[in-house]
Design a protein that fits this description.
35% strand, two-stranded antiparallel ribbon, globular, mainly beta, 9% helix, Ubiquitin-like (UB roll)
C-alpha cells in the first residue's frame, strides 16, 4: 500500500493508505484525541464508533469519530492535544 500525506495539528504526517484517522493520530505526536468537560485527556475505548471518545475535527467539521473514518490525501485533523 502507498503512503499518503495529511496534517494533524498543523504537522505533516505520512500514513499508510487505508488507515483510520485514529491510527494516524496514534502514530503522530498528538498527546490526546480530545479533552473532557473537566479537562481530562480522552482516547478511543471501543474502536468501533460507539463510545465517541475518539472525536476530533476533520477538515473543519467538529466531533468526527476518528475510528470510523479512513485517511485521505491532504486531510486536516485537529485534536484537543
Amino acid at each position: 500500500m502507498k503512503k499518503i500525506k495529511l496534517q494533524i495539528n498543523n504537522e505533516s504526517v505520512s500514513i499508510q493508505e487505508g488507515s483510520t484517522v485514529a491510527t494516524a493520530i496514534f502514530e503522530s505526536d498528538a498527546k490526546t484525541f480530545r479533552k473532557s468537560v473537566s479537562g481530562e485527556n480522552r482516547f478511543p475505548l471501543c474502536g468501533m464508533g460507539i463510545c465517541f471518545e475518539c472525536r476530533v475535527t476533520i477538515d473543519g467539521v467538529k466531533h468526527q469519530r476518528s475510528c470510523q473514518i479512513l485517511v485521505r490525501e491532504g486531510m486536516k485533523i485537529e485534536t484537543d492535544g
